[in-house]
Amino acid sequence: MGTSITFKRPDGKDASGYLANAARGNAPGVVVIQEWWGLQDQIKGLCDRFAVAGFDALAPDLYKGTVVPYHDTDAAGREMNSLDFMDATTQTVRGAAQYLSRNGAKVGLTGFCLGGAVTIIGATKIPELAAGVVFYGIPPEQAAKPADVKIPLQAHFANKDDWCTPEVVNAFEQGMKAAGKSLELFRYDAEHAFVNEQRQSVHDRQAAELAWGRATAFFAKHLG
């Protein structure tokens, strides 16, 4: 349904990604950020679903062509740990947001796992954004403080998550409340990466569909 494109970062360098356009011409935009596996077909599929839901969706390729097989957590960890999160967010992700906003459209940001952390960083660093939806990822506070979040956020977390643990989620929620920031936070009795239907060991269809409905409604409300 979508297509691979090249777009410009603010620093003038080229970046690539997967773009799926909504049927209507003046659709709002959503930037979709990958898990630590890279720009997997599952993320492209989510872009296609956003397009059907009425949004132009662009998933920038933060790993520049590298896609890690789902079973290889060591390789995924190496790729994630070698990623310059600030450059990825303020240049590649912002470039994607600028691409989607070029006709005056409002733009949101969403991401999963690694992409959830990038979404929160983006909420503090990317002026083109109007809203963000976070899926089971939180960056270290030195990367993005709740007090610096500039847009309304919705967030989805798993109670059985041993990476983005309930304790980490509670601290983030308290930080957002203390800073007086807009946050809708949902918890699911599921495991990390429960939205990813390509990973049957963790996928929870009921939780995934509930979260998807909430996310698209949130973007429709804030992006128009």
UniProtKB/TrEMBL annotation:
GO terms for molecular function: hydrolase activity. Gene3D superfamilies: alpha/beta hydrolase. SUPFAM superfamilies: alpha/beta-Hydrolases (SSF53474). It comes from the Bacteria. Residues 17-222 form the Dienelactone hydrolase domain. Signal peptide: none annotated. This is Carboxymethylenebutenolidase.
